[in-house]
Specification:
By secondary structure, the protein is mainly alpha-helical. It contains 17 helices and 6 strands. It folds into 3 domains: about 5-325, Up-down Bundle (ABC transporter transmembrane region fold), CATH 1.20.1560; about 345-420, 3-Layer(aba) Sandwich (Rossmann fold), CATH 3.40.50; about 440-510, no CATH class.
Length: about 500
């Protein structure tokens, strides 16, 4: 699988964000600034109040200072709260508007050979995890980088302030934090190791979810009593996921325990140092201010460590998405031949063999025949003989493992597949239907000429059937979207698929 650097993934995620959603990018920066400086202002106010008491200023002046300070602090907190609330939803907007359509388009255009490849399915599952999750993958990348920006900015600000107190304390804090980051990185490496096994279990669970939701399959599930068997398969996948996550979580818990020990050691040394300084004449207001800084510094270091681990995991997930989107099918050796002007089609199989991905034996071996324009040919054979494979090779859905399929003298490897698909109408044993209206399923479009469709239905012998329905052409096929939709039998689905092929100006039909 192609790998992308984390910097490449930053460009992939943030260039579209800056070009198309600049306001969101600016809000992210503003949120980080307020997230860091508002707590500093809070510590300064506390220190200021204690300093005022130390200086013995009058009560009225102290009250005015406190009210003014808290008014400013309240406004800053309101702005900070607004930016944080906005940030909770804005990355969903980015993910759905800028990236999801790319994946849907790829789902609809990936070649059939790739679509049926188990490894490609696994990659598709991982790309789904990247694109459809809120706290991981692409959206997690934005969220965790926002946290990383806050923590790095906070670290710089607090480091400058802590360093002004004692550079040795600063050096110790950084060193302990480096140890914590190394432990967290170990968790990331293990996550990489279990990604593929987890994807396999997710594939199983998603497949079962689709299968039990299928109305056609529901009949067999009930008649043959498959409930226990299916539930057992689903439960086994869940248990395997739980086992993989357990080992990951144990490593994460170990990293957290180490963080706790380091935090305790950090606090013991730093607070001891401050107490000694207080005993040697440090003002109480300074003591309170630096105490808050050290506690905050430790939290920024911990936040950086966790954010870096999460960003690394999210970047690995983006690798999966990009690898799926960048899948390439075999391209013509030269310029692809446009078939849109063809009115007749002749097909020739020249010593064609085909082996499915992962199969040891060839489904077809050294097959040769010629199908002239206008000629009718019936393929007869036992199950598994390769009849459907031949049709898929004729249709250009597959390319031969060896040999050549010629269409009007042009190898299917050199055809513009999209224009070739438009010049044929291939109907398989289980035709595809979408849970929209009959009119849309036949016209294959949201807009259509109703009179023309009635003529097509009459040709297919379906006009009386459709006229008997309450919604006629507007009746939905299936109940997935419309509760009053109709369920078709297998034969009816075949007939409707044939009706859908009739309006197309094609040069070749296959069924």
């Amino acid at each position: 699988m192609k790998q992308y650097s984390i910097w490449s993934n930053y460009r992939y995620a943030y260039v579209p964000l800056w070009n198309k959603k600049k306001k969101i990018a600016l809000c992210t920066i503003a949120e980080a600034v307020f997230y860091v400086f508002v707590p500093v202002v809070g510590m300064m106010i506390t220190s200021m109040i204690i300093g005022g008491l130390e200086q013995g200023i009058s009560a009225p002046d102290l009250v005015v200072r406190i009210l003014t300070a808290f008014a400013v602090y309240g406004v800053l907190n309101m702005v900070k709260g607004y930016l944080e609330a906005r940030g909770g939803e804005q990355y969903i907007e980015v993910r759905t508007e800028l990236f999801i359509m790319d994946q849907i388009e790829k789902d609809l255009t990936v070649s059939m050979e790739q679509y049926e490849d188990k490894e490609i399915h696994k990659l598709k599952e991982k790309s789904d995890e990247c694109l459809w999750a809120n706290m991981s993958g692409l959206e997690g990348f934005y969220r965790h980088n926002s946290d990383l920006l806050k923590s790095v900015l906070g670290l710089v600000v607090y480091a400058l302030l802590v360093g002004s107190m004692n550079w040795k304390i600063l050096l110790m804090l950084v060193g302990m934090s480096a140890v914590s980051a190394a432990a967290a990185y170990n968790v990331t490496r293990y996550y990489q190791k279990i990604k593929d096994p987890l994807a396999e279990q997710y594939m199983t669970m998603h497949y079962i979810n689709r299968a039990v939701d299928d109305i056609q399959g529901g009949k067999d599930i009930r008649i043959f009593g498959l409930e226990g068997w299916i539930i057992g398969k689903f439960d086994a996948a869940i248990r395997r996921c739980r086992q993989l996550r357990f080992h990951r979580d144990m490593r994460s818990y170990g990293s957290n325990i180490l963080d706790t020990v380091l935090d305790a050691a950090r606090d013991l040394v730093c607070y001891g140092y401050l107490i000694v300084q207080l005993a040697n004449g440090m003002r109480l207001s300074e003591f309170v201010f630096y105490l808050g800084l050290i506690a905050g510094f430790s939290s920024w270091i911990g936040m950086i460590s966790k954010s870096l681990v999460s960003v690394r995991q999210d970047s690995d997930s983006i690798n999966d998405l990009r690898a799926y989107l960048d899948l390439e099918e075999e391209k013509p050796s030269g310029e692809a031949v446009d078939c849109s002007a063809w009115t007749d089609i002749e097909i020739v199989f020249d010593h064609v063999s085909y082996r499915y991905c992962g199969a040891e034996a060839e489904t077809l071996h050294d097959v040769s025949f010629r199908l002239a324009a206008g000629e009718k040919l019936a393929l007869v054979g036992v199950n598994g003989a390769g009849k459907t494979t031949i049709v898929k090779l004729m249709a250009g859905l597959y390319l031969p493992t060896s040999g050549t399929v010629y269409v009007n003298g042009v190898s299917t490897r050199d055809l513009d597949r999209k224009s070739y698909f438009a010049r044929q109408a291939t109907i398989f044993q289980e035709p595809f239907q979408i849970s929209y209206s009959i009119g849309e399923n036949i016209a294959l479009s949201e807009t259509y000429d109703r009179e023309k469709l009635w003529r097509v239905l009459a040709q297919a012998g379906l006009d009386q059937k459709v006229r008997s329905l309450a919604g006629q052409l507007d009746t939905h096929l299936g109940k997935d979207i419309a509760p009053d939709g109709i369920a078709l039998s297998g034969g009816e689905m075949q007939n409707f698929a044939c009706a859908g092929a009739l309006p197309r100006r094609v040069a070749h039909h296959a069924r």
